[in-house]
Amino acid sequence: MAEQAMHWYLELQEHDVSEATRAAWMNWRQAHPLHERAWQRAEVFTQRLSEVRSPGQRALAQATLRPTLSRRAAMKQLSVLLAAGAGAWSLKDTTLLQDMTADYHTRIGEQRRIGLPDNTQVQLNTDSAINVVFERESHRVKLLRGEMLITRDNIADGRLLSIDTADGRLEATLARFSVRQRAGFTQVSVYQGTLVISPPLQRRAPVALKAGEQVSFNDQGLMLRQTVALTAPAWTQGMLVAQGLRLADFLEDVSRYRRGHLACDPAIADIRVSGTFPLANTERIILAVADTLQLDVQQFTRYWVTLKPRMA
């Protein structure tokens, strides 16, 4: 949100700012209370930026204000300073702090493969972060945010691996499974082997999950249990697969792999999308879907894209 706020600040510094850009900026501010808070902090921050006196930040502040600095670099540097401002942002809850303290993380649109000391293989999806603790008595991975695929088929000592999420703990020995931290719950899919789920506030015994099952759970217990294909998720191959998915939900998935705002007009939110799309270029995905469904792409800036019904 800090980076988005600085994006809008820089947009509004341009000469001859269009009414469409101003409208998009106001829409962003009104979309969520934290957006408005981010904007207010950005205004205060930018007013004081030229007066930064901290020896550690003076060079960065001066570099940020240089007219020769690229727009992208300026936005990144401004957002870092803004997010790190004196106690204003509760840094312990921000993506910035997670990335600074996590053992491994990925940026938006990035994926990463990691080999752990016991031969466990971890693949991180876009915008994800984990911490890893390997001690004599325990092997643990904590999912701070995002999504990962874990493969344990040739581990060194057969020791149990614990996975901690915001909603509880998973335990597995030999298994292949994905874990995604969502808003208010965790989603787990098992492709090989078995694992056990232990929500902290659930009074019943831990839940065993076998290959071909997918579970959504929160700290109270299981919310949904259903079947899932035994093949690894499409994102591990750099693909996004949709099978009759609502357009609004499809765009929400695509937005995980790109910066900015991506949505559709409520009038077309329930149109169904099917297909297989390469994640390497989200612009192509948007244009392909719009062309297939005969929709218009309304783009105020590259960070604010909305699909609309096509005008006759």
Described by its quaternary structure, the protein is: single chain
State the helix count: 8
Looking at the structure, what is the overall shape? globular
Q: What is the alpha-carbon Rg in Å?
A: 22 Å
Number of domains: 3
CATH class group of the largest domain: Mainly Beta
β-strand amount: 35-45%
Question: Averaged pLDDT, please?
Answer: 84
Number of strands: 16
- Low-pLDDT runs: 50-69, 86-93
CATH topology group of the largest domain: Jelly Rolls
Measure the end-to-end span.
37 Å
List the helices and strands in order. Answer: HHHHHHEEEEEEEEEEEEHEEHEE
Level of helix content? 25-40%
Largest sheet: 11 strands, mixed
The helix-and-strand class reads alpha+beta
The CATH architecture of the largest domain is Sandwich
Describe the structure.
This protein is α+β, with helices and mostly antiparallel strands. It has eight helices and 16 strands. The chain has helices at 2-12, 19-31, 33-49, 55-64, 71-83, 95-101, 247-255, 282-292; strands at residues 104-105, 112-115, 121-124, 129-134, 139-152, 161-165, 168-182, 185-198, 207-210, 213-218, 221-227, 239-246, 261-264, 272-278, 295-301, 304-309. The protein has three domains: 2-98, no CATH class; 102-227, Jelly Rolls (Sandwich); 238-309, Phage tail protein beta-alpha-beta fold (3-Layer(bab) Sandwich). The strands form three sheets. Strands 1, 2, 3, 4, 5, 6, 7, 8, 9, 10 and 11 form an eleven-stranded mixed sheet that branches. Strands 13-16-15 form a three-stranded mixed sheet. A two-stranded antiparallel ribbon has the order 12-14. Helix 2 (19-31) packs across helix 3. A hairpin with a 2-residue loop joins strand 6 and strand 7.
